[in-house]
């Protein structure tokens, strides 16, 4: 079966066609991601109004390109899947309305999906990973650890009580005068920095509660930056490196608890899997820390290709294909409304 996927929940306008064979193997037939980074760069972050308008302008062309690349016409797809939340209201509405129209015209099922399910199932799209597995999702909007038990059965082990990890990178970049998006620019600046110069806090390290927190760390970076004014290039590099090390360390501490909990839930799994996804998964320091952590805990560590870690529509098409294959359709999908905080 082939599914057309649409993703407009934040600042990427994306469409993709993914095929699933009878053995549950995936083939990405097309994967178009149009990033709005340049539209938002001048404002130092995503502006919802600008995002919604950019989706309206771009989506039809992006869908057309995805079908063309796949060599298919609309009436050859078996379903249309779309991110219906969580995300920005305007963008979600654009995606959902477009998907409803396409599904109606093609007379195929419409699958309104949770965007996070797309991230959660990416490792099955890329590596055919079997259920259950553990997922660390770290993006600009989300920081969560999920036990992925089965299709549609997700258990949240931890989530953030304030900022998302990527959001912290973006805010720290801003206060260090580095360009948006912040994650890549902080990582770049940090390559020539000393991660031990500023002993930033590791929020909640050692605590039992299943939470992440990054706003205190961000404040600590701001105070250190204010003290060191005027900032030299070396100061910026050291602040970036010290911040990045603190994030990786704090994340690893939370993940190590989750690894234990997951192992207790599935004592018979030979080598359980930890998957990392979301834009922050691109960070080399974080990847290195998680690789070491998994080696110590005898977990297999899996990071999907960077292109599929960030927001994309292939993960939505694939989640749709999994649901369609399992017969998990939503009743009256045509009247499904966006769920911004789903
Ligand atoms: O998953 P994503 O593309 O979009 C969503 O937020 O859903 O993630 C974007 C986030 C941004 O906050 C960006 O700064 C962060 O991922 N990011 C990184 C890196 N690349 C992107 N953070 C740290 N290091 C990176 N190399
Ligand atoms: Zn996302």
Automatic annotation (TrEMBL):
It is an enzyme of class 2 (transferase). Its cofactor is Fe(2+). It comes from the Bacteria. Keywords: Acyltransferase, Cytoplasm, Iron, Metal-binding, Transferase, tRNA processing. InterPro entries: ATPase_NBD, Gcp-like_dom, KAE1/TsaD, TsaD. It catalyses: L-threonylcarbamoyladenylate + adenosine(37) in tRNA = N(6)-L-threonylcarbamoyladenosine(37) in tRNA + AMP + H(+). The keyword Hydrolase does not apply. Signal peptide: none annotated. Transmembrane segments: none annotated. Substrate binds at residues 137-141, 170, 183, 187, 283. It is found in: Cytoplasm. Its EC number is 2.3.1.234. The keyword Acyltransferase applies. GO terms for molecular function: tRNA N(6)-L-threonylcarbamoyladenine synthase activity. Its main location: cytoplasm. Binds 1 Fe(2+) ion per subunit. Residues 28-318 form the Gcp-like domain. Fe cation binds at residues 115, 119, 311. Belongs to the KAE1 / TsaD family. HAMAP family: TsaD. Required for the formation of a threonylcarbamoyl group on adenosine at position 37 (t(6)A37) in tRNAs that read codons beginning with adenine. Is involved in the transfer of the threonylcarbamoyl moiety of threonylcarbamoyl-AMP (TC-AMP) to the N6 group of A37, together with TsaE and TsaB. TsaD likely plays a direct catalytic role in this reaction. This is tRNA N6-adenosine threonylcarbamoyltransferase. It comes from Mesorhizobium liriopis. The lineage of its organism: Bacteria, Pseudomonadati, Pseudomonadota, Alphaproteobacteria, Hyphomicrobiales.
């Amino acid at each position: 079966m082939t599914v057309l996927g649409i993703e407009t929940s934040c600042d990427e306008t994306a469409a993709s066609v993914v095929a699933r064979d009878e053995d549950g193997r995936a083939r990405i037939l097309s994967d178009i991601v149009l990033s709005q980074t340049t539209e938002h760069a001048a404002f130092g972050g995503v502006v919802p109004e600008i995002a919604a308008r950019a989706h309206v302008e771009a989506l039809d062309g992006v869908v057309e390109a995805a079908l063309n690349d796949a060599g298919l016409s609309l009436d050859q797809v078996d379903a249309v899947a779309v991110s219906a939340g969580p995300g920005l209201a305007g963008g979600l509405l654009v995606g959902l309305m477009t998907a409803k129209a396409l599904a109606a015209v093609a007379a195929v099922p419409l699958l309104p999906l949770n965007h996070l399910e797309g991230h959660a199932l990416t490792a099955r799209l890329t590596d055919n990973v079997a259920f259950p597995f553990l997922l660390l999702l770290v993006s600009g909007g989300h920081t969560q650890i999920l036990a992925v038990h089965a299709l549609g059965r997700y258990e949240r082990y931890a989530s953030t009580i304030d900022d998302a990890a990527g959001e912290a990178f973006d805010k720290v970049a801003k206060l260090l005068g580095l360009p948006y998006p912040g994650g890549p620019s902080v990582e770049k600046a940090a390559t020539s920095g000393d991660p031990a110069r500023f002993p930033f806090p590791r929020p909640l390290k050692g605590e039992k509660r299943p939470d992440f927190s990054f706003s205190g760390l961000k404040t600590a970076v701001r105070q250190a930056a204010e003290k060191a004014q005027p900032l030299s290039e070396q100061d910026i590099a050291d602040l970036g490196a010290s911040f990045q090390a603190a994030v990786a360390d704090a994340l690893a501490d939370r993940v190590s608890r989750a690894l234990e909990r997951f192992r207790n839930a599935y004592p018979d799994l030979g080598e359980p899997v930890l998957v990392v996804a979301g834009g922050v998964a691109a960070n080399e320091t974080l990847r290195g820390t998680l690789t070491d952590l998994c080696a110590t805990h005898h977990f297999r560590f899996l990071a999907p290709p960077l292109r599929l870690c960030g927001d994309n529509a292939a993960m939505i098409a694939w989640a749709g294909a999994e649901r369609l294959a399992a017969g998990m359709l939503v009743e009256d999908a045509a009247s499904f409304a966006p769920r911004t905080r789903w």
